[in-house]
Amino acid sequence: MRKLYIAAIVIILLTPLGLLAPGSAWGEWGLDEIKSMIGYVPEGMSRFSEVIKAILPDYSIPGFDSNFFQQALGYIFSAVVGIAAIVLIFAILGRIMGKPQKKNE
Amino acid sequence: MHIPEGYISPQTCAVMGAAMVPVIAVAAKKVNESFDKKDVPAMAIGSAFSFTIMMFNIPIPGGTTAHAIGATLLAITLGPWAASISLTIALFIQALLFGDGGILALGANSFNMAFIAPFVGYGIYRLMLSLKLNKVLSSAIGGYVGINAAALATAIELGLQPLLFHTANGTPLYFPYGLNVAIPAMMFAHLTVAGIVEAVITGLVVYYLEKTDEENILYKFSYKLRGDNK
Question: Which residues form the PDGLE domain (chain A) (predicted)?
Answer without folding.
Answer: 5-97
